[in-house]
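HUMAN: Spend a minute on the protein record below and explain its fold to me.
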Amino acid sequence: MDELTTPEGFLLRPWLPDDASAVLRAFAPAEMDRQTDRPVDDRSGALAWIAERARERGARTGYSWAVVGEEGEALGCVALNVVNRAHDSGWVSYWTTESARGRGVAPAGVRALARWAFDELGLYRLELGHRTDNVASCRVATRSGFASEGIERAKLRYGRVRYDVERHARLADDVVNFD
């Protein structure tokens, strides 16, 4: 459970304190501010974010991995949260550092996470959502085998602006061309 590998050569492993610099780089863009409930704008914030991922993993309430490249640097994050055992479902999220975008990091990580969730946790349905104006996130979802299921109108609010969200899902018995 601690490490997963992808056919593309990425390693998924738990977040480590040594990853604080990568976490800081990832959360530097203003857009990433929305991905966390507390600021990650200094080393202590990055270490607190990493510690929270370890706490969730220990409590089995969330499973977050650093997606690591050949040089050992964390390039992104894939996570499974909101695991519902009554319905065998969970919520998938992902992000990458700016320098890792366009290199297949997120889709490779999400596919590995999905295989693990289906095989090891016995989940049947995985869901994710993205703002409809986030074309890159939609590409990650579809390249990871998640089918679009529709639009949730005005689901997210950032400041005074509301955003529609496209919901995607992947089922354990979906036939995908990369597993």
About this structure: The radius of gyration is 16 Å. The longest strand covers residues 147-158.
